[in-house]
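Pipeline run #58 for the internal structure catalog. This entry was flagged by the ingest filter as a single-chain record with no existing model, so it goes straight to prediction. Upstream metadata was stripped on purpose; only the residue string is passed forward. Reviewer on rotation: M.T. Logging verbosity set to normal.
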Amino acid sequence: MNITAKTKICMIIGDPVEHSLSPQMHNAGYEKLHIDDQYVYVACHVEVKNIEDFIKGIRVTNIRGVSCTIPHKIAVIPYLDHIDEVAKKIGAVNTIVNENGKLFGYNTDWLGVLDPIEKHINLQNKTVALIGAGGAARAAAYAVTSKGSKLIIYNRTIEKAKEIAKEFEGEAYSLEKIGNIESADIIINTTPIGLKQQTETPVPQKYISGKQLVFDAVYGIEETRLIKDAKEKGAKTISGIEMLFHQGFAQFKLFTGYDAPVDAMIKNVL
């Protein structure tokens, strides 16, 4: 790294955030393009109760870009100056860009969902079972419905699931009805289940079949139980690392103006 007083700071915020691989990925991109004197990427643990103060800090310290992960994707919205039309539709922001003190909100998570899935399957007329109702769930809902999929949302709090279902013309159920998920073509988990305790899974294995595509937005050093269970049943799987890559490539361009050096960023993380 060639950090100087002119280097612009980019970062990821979350609670938790210590597991994040975004710093390695973005910094590898900066080094590959020889712009590591211009940009550096770090992680910052921010509790949601402090988000307003953090946003003030972005302006005061002139931080260039911020990646938002759980639980900040919705919480940051009231404090930004402009929200991109796609992010407005999704109702969540995972990318903040500071343009001379004006904060612009974007969403690249939907690309992190869409691009990996379309490598495996055509989404038209497919039934997608979406678990969760947070910011990542909203991005996934936008991604799959934009390609003609039928959306069914499962969430612990049924009211939140109903909100998203109404916006994206889907159906909503509580997690007590998770057994119905076996009829879906695609399962997408956007909850943090499996992040801290890898013995946990949002979907009992008995409801997974070899005909399904299972996408877990959670990622870590080891595979989640959901991914392991799905592989044992013969299902196609997509791990959260794929979402990390594809949403991150789009963020890289928003932060720097340069196309992401995809191969170098993937190689560094893997």
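catalog note: The chain has two domains: 8-107+243-269, 110-238.
catalog note: The two ends are 20 Å apart (CA to CA).
status: ready for reviewer M.T.
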